[in-house]
Task: inverse folding
């Protein structure tokens, strides 16, 4: 895993109330202590993506008695796993392959350099876009029926922080707080 990959944290909602937060193991442990039956909405804090959480992944001492052990083996992948290298397919035109082949170190080195240069040049724009998309994913899943949703979405993507805050002000406090957390990186870079 590269050093710029953040540790995944999750936030869990029961209705509009935040009921758990932390690593996957911490969230599973927190949920195991709850009396309510759910359903829970689980979100990745980095991407705003809604996730399914398998309660069978609890540590054995917290697992429900009826839960079966989860036994999935990951398939072996192509590449250099110890170095974090993953082989994937890239489709380019012949002139692109010709150019890459003429570069010092070959196609792989040239592609890595191009990607790193693009990441550096576009870092601020990518951060803003990622924050907007994370907030939008969360908003869509939990707040799609709340008043002002469409206008709040427009304000989010227009970069209008104050207008966005005003539009989500009447929303439940935990939803509002999580939205502001997800969108924060986008406002800080404008």
Result:
């Amino acid at each position: 895993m590269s050093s710029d990959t953040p540790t995944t944290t999750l936030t869990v909602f029961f209705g509009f109330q935040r009921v758990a937060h932390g690593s996957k193991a911490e969230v599973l442990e927190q949920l195991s202590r709850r009396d309510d039956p759910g359903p829970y909405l689980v979100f990745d804090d980095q991407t705003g993506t809604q996730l399914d959480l398998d309660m069978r992944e609890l540590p054995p001492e917290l697992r429900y008695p009826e839960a079966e052990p989860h036994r999935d083996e990951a398939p072996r992948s192509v590449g250099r796993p110890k170095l974090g290298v993953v082989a994937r397919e890239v489709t380019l035109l012949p002139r692109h392959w010709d150019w890459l082949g003429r570069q010092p170190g070959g196609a792989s080195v040239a592609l890595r350099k191009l990607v790193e240069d693009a990441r550096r040049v576009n870092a601020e724009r990518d951060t803003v876009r990622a924050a907007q998309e994370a907030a939008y994913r969360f908003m869509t899943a939990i707040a799609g029926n709340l008043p002002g949703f469409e206008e709040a979405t427009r304000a989010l993507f227009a970069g209008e922080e104050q207008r966005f805050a005003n539009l989500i002000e009447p929303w439940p406090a935990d939803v509002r707080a999580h939205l502001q957390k997800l969108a924060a990186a986008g406002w800080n870079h404008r």
Remarks:
- The beta strands are 10-14, 17-22, 41-44, 50-51.
- The chain has two domains: 10-57, 94-190.
